[in-house]
Write a structure and sequence with these properties.
By secondary structure, this protein is α/β, with parallel strands linked by helices. Helices cover 24% and strands 26% of the residues. It has 2 domains: 180 residues, Alpha-Beta Complex (Quinone Oxidoreductase, Chain A, domain 1); 136 residues, Rossmann fold, CATH 3.40.50. The longest helix is centred in the middle third of the chain and has 11 residues. The N and C termini lie close together (11 Å).
């Protein structure tokens, strides 16, 4: 089969012929329909963040496809089914799995990190972790549910605990942040979106943001002042979705006393936080990673009911041979979500 192979950092992926995956009794073989291009992969390629499996390996963890074959013990999935493949597979028996926090499983296996991923024509995965997709959902576009939609859903609903009427500031409106905006809007929040790109802020408005701020046109203090003015003294919740030390430092300062700050964006750099402000104002700080398996059916139903949209946030489509062009667009900040269509 054809796959885009990661050999080492600071080199483009190489599209090569590799062996088809061989499935075991508990696995399924999926013909990839599409795989989203995620900033996590860019950290491996550009920033030297190590993968658990040593290269050469296949990246890609945001996947939808059609089941081609099933292992001998797989009963609940059959060839021809449309499936969504979550980025992380949980063990089901560690402490965190037992208390319903499988997204931070102590033995987690990540697609395109611990094992070969889905920038390929075929991928093998454990059957127990796959989610059935209704035929009415567009198969290719549905790949972004796996991460670009589910990660914001978990951040908004489970970690930030957004309620109707909450004021929510979203810092960064890229591939994850733009969906934090639309999920927060769907949860009933009044959203203020902050980014440095006008086109991303226009999309945030289209998806329901009440206010937008282009932070490239203002000093940091002016941005914070404007947020406080728009939110009557400070937001209830701030969600940082870009992983920039500058916005991580800014985030808690946008909140009212007693507000909640949620970190979704990843950064390989340290970021300072004002401990005095956190203490004196009783600011809550929470991390958010991925999504629990139990939430995927809820997300799929919200998409089916058009409470969450897929098509508007997919801005570019590429064939596997052109995958490096997708990463070039991401480096320039010119895409929301690109998908690789097989």
């Amino acid at each position: 089969m054809k796959a885009a192979v990661f050999h080492k950092p600071n080199e483009p992926l190489k599209v090569e012929e590799v062996e088809n995956p061989k499935i075991y009794f508990h696995e399924i073989l999926v013909k990839v329909a599409a795989c989203g291009v995620c900033n996590t992969d860019l950290h491996y390629i550009d920033h030297g963040v190590p993968t658990f499996k040593k290269p050469p390996m296949i990246l890609g963890h945001e996947t939808s496809g059609i089941v081609q074959d099933v292992g001998a013990q797989v009963k609940e999935i059959k060839a021809g089914d449309h499936v969504l493949i979550p980025p992380v597979f949980s063990c089901g028996h560690c402490y965190n799995c037992r208390i319903g926090r499988e997204n931070i499983c102590l033995n987690m296996i990540m697609l395109g990190n611990n094992i070969d991923g889905a920038y390929a024509e075929y991928v093998k995965v454990p059957a127990k972790d796959c989610i059935s997709l209704p035929d009415e959902l567009p198969l290719e576009e549905s790949c972004i549910i796996a991460d670009a939609i589910s990660t914001p859903y978990h951040a908004v609903k489970n970690r930030a605990q957004v309620r109707p009427g909450d004021s929510v500031v979203v810092l960064g409106c890229g591939g994850v942040g733009i969906n934090v905006v639309q999920v927060a809007v769907a949860a009933g929040a009044s959203v203020t979106a902050v980014d440095i790109k006008d086109d991303k802020l226009e999309m945030a408005k289209r998806l329901g943001a009440k206010n937008t701020i282009n932070s490239s046109k203002k000093q940091d203090k002016a941005v914070i002042t404007e947020i406080r003015k728009l939110t009557d003294g400070g937001a209830d919740i701030c969600i940082e979705a870009i992983g920039n030390p500058k916005t991580i430092e800014m985030g808690p300062t946008t909140l009212r006393p007693g507000g909640r700050y949620v970190q979704v964006g990843f950064s390989h750099q340290a970021a300072p936080l004002n401990a005095g402000r956190l203490m004196f104002r009783e600011i809550e700080i929470l991390g958010s990673l991925g999504c629990r398996p139990v939430d995927y059916p809820k997300i799929i139903e919200m998409i089916r009911l058009k409470r969450i949209q897929l098509e508007p946030v997919i801005t570019h489509r590429f064939k596997l041979d052109d995958i490096n062009k997708a990463f070039d667009l991401m480096r320039k900040g010119e895409s929301l979500r690109s998908i690789i269509v097989m």
